[in-house]
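Handout, page 2. Input:
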Amino acid sequence: MVVCIADFERLNKLLEIIIDEREIIQMSEFELGWRWAKTHSPDISKLEIEQILPVSDIESRRLNKVIQYFENDSNLRGKYTESDWMRASSESDEKIEKFRKNLDAILEKWEEGVIITWNRHITLKTSKEIFLKYWTDFLYPSSDDVTIISEKTNWVMFYHHIEVANIWTRISENREQLLTI
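Output:
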């Protein structure tokens, strides 16, 4: 038996991570807000900063209950394809651009927001474009272990403080297999 289109749309909604917009906080209240201050990131525009949406501690904890599922490899196997570990070095403009291009090539088919979490209490939402453009402000070597996940859970990326990252991308056939009973 094949599930109808309405069921497919309902399944897509179940796989989507939705932020409670009432829980978006001011950048000045966000623990890592200094990363996008003009003194630290002089190239970022006010309009771009407005696309970085930090969430409250309560919302961060709620989102991380969902994200925690995706941080377990066994929950991803068979549904996602894992990339090799990639070097995510920010030591030169050339290496920054190389990582950006690698990410863009892997993620190009998905146009959805991203949720970035450093820990249970520190999470934000932004666009894929802002994340790619300013990835060095989101991912700090030596200190950050970060999970980045697309809103529709089509991909999840793990960045480790030793300047490596890997990405799990949804196997599209699996979404269709979920529709077959």
